[in-house]
Amino acid sequence: MADLPKIILKPGKEQSLNRFHPWVFSGAIGSTEGTVTEGDLVEVFDSNGGFQALGHCQIGSIAVRVLSFQQREANYEFWKEKLQNAYNLRVSIGLATSEQTNAYRLVHAEGDGLPGLIIDYYNGTAVVQMHTVGMYLIQDDILQALKEIYGHQLKAVYNKSEGTLPYKADMEPENGYVFGRDKEKIAMENGLKFHVDWEKGQKTGFFVDQRDNRALLEQYSKDKDVLNMFCYTGGFSFYAMRGGAKSVHSVDSSERAIQLTEDNVMLNFPNDPRHKSFAVDAFKYLDTIKDQYDLIVLDPPAFAKHLNVVKNALNGYRRINTKAIEQIKPGGIIFTFSCSQVVSKEQFRTMVFSSAARAGRQVRVLHQMTQPADHPVNIYHPEGEYLKGLVIYVE
After folding, report:
1. Distances (CA, A) of 196 to 120, 169, 291
2. Annotated catalytic residue, options 138, 257, 320, 339
């Protein structure tokens, strides 16, 4: 095994690693042995010389992202084993073998022991996003492992890391196919079809993390007038239609998102008069809908991606939730979400409580929602639980 650079921790700073937390912060580091550049594999030792972890180093407050707490060689077999374990989990929960769903997350960063790596699978195409230089440097191993694991099922691999690698890194990644090509770009979720634009769309092209929550919405949609705010590709909209909604209105400020929504509705419910879409500002639209809707979905983009803007983000969530609670019909139901990792479950719930109080209406919680099983949360890394949601009943 080749000698790797060593990170020596300050006395007592190994405690979080002893609890298997997969991050080493820069302030915990006492010294280094050997030359270390961003993306390098490094070994982490406590101040007494005891081995603690193997990981990728990076520039920033999180200095090392842990790949293993065992002293191993990070060769091709190491990476393939991790990807195979991730695939096996998706088999065990019935996703990788489902006849009704062929879109799911294969690798969820720390949740699958591969910090800095996201892979979403869409009907034979794997869309890969590297968020660390270390993962970018092993992309050939990742590609080869995907080919071996999926075999003939794998039609294409698209690398979409241009906008996800640290901007300070001396890298010039370009989005593009690194294997095969998929011209159809249509996948299926719970029997419903949708277009996936992984080349120009947000994230990897579709938000597979809302699968279970969309299915729950379907159960509540019968005979209701439904509003899907921040609709993006319209996922909640076509689930509501299959659930028997009386009408479904999709709203997004982006003309492109509205086109994606209309394309997806046409794919499942061609020329269905129940659906209408509007490219308008969310807050302006909510001002005009008093007692118009029985069911409202609030799934905004992440208002906060960094801790220093959490207060502003919570104010944004509060404004949109207060307005929806004020405007919904008596006896209405709201599905409300936050995908901001830096907003905790407690902060989100308190925000909804505050919104209800400001609106002056009686509100009850029916469901508490989170991300699905293909977005697993490492028990030692609670920060991985980023998606929060509540279903509330408004009297």
Report:
1. 11, 29, 34
2. 339
